[in-house]
Amino acid sequence: MRGLSEKVAIITGGARGMGESHVRRFIEEGAKVVFTDINKSAGEALAEELGENAVFVEHDVTDADGWKAVVNQAESAFGPVNVLVNNAGISMSKTIFEMTEEEYRKIIDINQVSVFLGIKAVLPSMQKAEGGSIVNISSMNGIVGGAPGYTDSKFAVRGLTKAAAIQLGGLGIRVNSVHPGVIETPMVSEGDAVEQIREFAKQIPMKRTAQSEEVTNMVAFLASDEASYSTGSEFIIDGGLTAM
After folding, report:
1. DSSP letter string over the chain?
2. Is-contact 87 19, C-beta < 8 A?
3. Sign, Cα dihedral of 243, 232, 25, 61
4. Residue 1: its pLDDT value, please?
5. In whole angstroms, what is the distance from residue 111 CA to residue 106 CA?
6. Per residue in 139-148, pLDDT tens?
7. How high is the pLDDT of residue 192?
8. What are the mean pLDDT values of the chain's consecutive 10-residue runs (244 residues total)?
9. Sign of the CA dihedral 110, 215, 6, 36?
10. pTM for the model
C-alpha cells in the first residue's frame, strides 16, 4: 500500500519518538516530508538518513513567523502542502499546587496554541492543493482527566479539531485528532518513571504499552485518501484504558 504516495506533508516534533515513526512511514509510503523539531542534531541526522524526500527544519512551534517559514520551505521544496501532522508536544506531571503560571502557559502554548498556528499557516497551501488532511495528536487525556496543563491542552486540541473540521470541510480539508495512551517513546523508556509505567501497564486491558508504529498506523490512514469521509473525529489508541 502506498496511500501517501505523492503527498506533501509537514510533521512537527519529527526528530524522535512518535514523530520520527510518522516521518519514516510517510517516506516509506512515497510522501515528501518537511519535518520540524527543536532537536537540531537529531533532526539533521534523520533527514540525512532518509534522503532527498525528507527535509528537516529547526522550528519552535509556538512561533507564528516560524510556521510561515516552514510552509514556504515545504512549497519551495515539494509544492503545495496537503498533509499536516501536529505532533509536537510536552508533558508535565505537577499538581495545581506545584505548577507555576509560567509552566502552565508553556504547556498551553506548545500543546494547544501551536496547533492553531499550524492550521492557520497551512491553509493557503492546502487551498492551492485543493484539499488536504490535518491530523492533530492529542492524548487519551484529551478524553479523560490527567495532569493539569497537559489535560487542558489536549482537550482543547480535541475541541479545535472539531471546530476546524466544520469550517474547513467545504474546502476539502479534513481535520481529525488522534488520542494515544501510554506509548514506548524515549520520553517514557529513558525517563525516571520507567518502573512506575511498567506497573501501570498491568492496569491496561491489553496488558501492555503501545509501540510508536501503532500510532503511526492511524496517522498514516487519516492522512491518506483512504480516510476520505472521516473528519471532526477522535481516534483513540490506548489499549482500552478509556473504556474502563
Report:
1. --TTTT-EEEEES-SSHHHHHHHHHHHHTT-EEEEEES-HHHHHHHHHHH-TTEEEEE--TT-HHHHHHHHHHHHHHHSS--EEEE---------TTT--HHHHHHHHIIIIIHHHHHHHHHHHHHHHTT-EEEEEE--GGGTS--STTHHHHHHHHHHHHHHHHHHHGGGTEEEEEEEE-SEE-HHHHTSTTHHHHHHHHTTSTTSSPEEHHHHHHHHHHHHSGGGTT--S-EEEESTTGGG-
2. yes
3. negative
4. 45
5. 8
6. 999 999 999 9
7. 58
8. 86 97 98 98 98 98 98 98 97 93 98 98 98 98 95 98 98 98 74 73 92 97 97 98 94
9. positive
10. 0.95
**Nearest 5 degrees, angle CA 12-CA 1-CA 165?**
45
What phi and psi, each to the nearest 5 degrees, are found at residue 68?
A: -60, -40
CA distances from 180 to 31, 39, 51, 146, 168 (A): 23, 22, 29, 13, 24
| Beta carbons of 21 and 216 less than 8 angstroms apart | yes
Architecture of the domain whose range is 8-236: 3-Layer(aba) Sandwich (3.40)
Torsion sign (Cα): 135, 136, 139, 145? negative
Which sequence positions are flagged as catalytic? 150
What the block records as the C-alpha cell of 239 is: 489499549
Environment class of 38 (CB within 10 Å of its CB; exposed 0-12, middle 13-18, buried 19+) = middle
Give the model confidence (pLDDT) of 60-113 as tens digits: 999 999 999 999 999 999 999 999 999 999 998 899 999 999 999 999 999 999
Question: Domain-by-domain residue ranges, the chain?
Answer: 8-236
pLDDT at 185: 75
